[in-house]
TrEMBL record:
Pfam families: Cytidylate_kin. Its main location: cytoplasm. This is Cytidylate kinase. Residues 5-40, 60-189 form the Cytidylate kinase domain. Keywords: ATP-binding, Cytoplasm, Kinase, Nucleotide-binding, Transferase. CDD domains: CMPK. It catalyses: dCMP + ATP = dCDP + ADP; CMP + ATP = CDP + ADP. The keyword Cytoplasm applies. GO terms for molecular function: kinase activity. It comes from the Bacteria. Its EC number is 2.7.4.25. The keyword Transferase applies. Belongs to the cytidylate kinase family. Type 1 subfamily.
Length: 193
């Protein structure tokens, strides 16, 4: 069975948690596409060369979850050649046998416009910054500023900007608990299976 669940949305909206839970519930494979950009940013040097030579070991680095790695990722993600180098791998993953969940910024719009399910998972910047702050600590105002900066860069770039596909189901997690958000996502998938 070929079945793709595309989950897009801004940083810290709950995409990762929802994606893992949907994949586990339906027995699909899961790809966190943000990790690809984080690895390219963390490798340093020429980002286009890094994207073309990306290996599974690069994705397993333990420094990819930091705020700095997120900022570096969003800078290299604006480079068209970097995105082009990562396209085929993501498309093949999306259409591989057995069902796949991909989460990112452009899965429903660019990587897999034919996805059987498209979700746009979002939440207010304040709620997202608070969640991020609970994870990373530090100065709350600084965390909010970084969330807003990354939103502006991801939504404002010319190449594959963050936006909901016209046929995406929007899930606003601002006032939802994790379980409620997961159930809302699973209900959409179950309906289309
Ligand atoms: O989702 P995550 O926070 O790990 O993504 C890091 C950065 O990678 C995002 O801010 C975005 O700029 C970029 N990204 C992207 N397209 C994707 C996934 C991530 O441009 N499909």
């Amino acid at each position: 069975m070929i079945f793709t669940v595309a989950i897009d949305g801004p940083a810290a909206a709950g995409k990762g948690t929802i994606s893992r839970a949907v994949a586990a519930r339906f027995g699909f494979r899961h790809l966190d596409t943000g990790l690809l950009y984080r690895a390219v940013g963390a490798l340093g040097g020429d980002p286009v060369a890094a994207a073309r030579a990306l290996s599974p070991e690069d994705l397993a680095r333990d420094d990819l979850r930091t705020l700095e790695a997120g900022q570096a990722a969003s800078r290299v993600a604006a480079i068209p050649e970097v995105r082009a180098a990562l396209l085929d791998f993501q498309r093949r993953f999306a259409r591989s046998e057995g069902g796949a969940v991909l989460d990112g910024r452009d899965i429903g719009t660019v990587i897999c416009p034919e996805a059987e399910v498209k979700l746009f998972v979002t939440a207010s910047p304040q709620v997202r910054a608070h969640r991020r702050w609970l994870e990373v600590g530090g100065d709350a105002a600084q965390v909010l500023a970084e969330v807003l900066e990354r939103d502006a860069r991801d939504m404002g770039r010319a190449e594959a900007p963050l936006r909901a596909a016209a046929d995406a189901v929007v899930i606003d997690t601002s006032a939802l608990g994790i379980d409620e958000a997961v159930e809302a996502a699973c209900a959409v998938v179950a309906q289309r299976l």
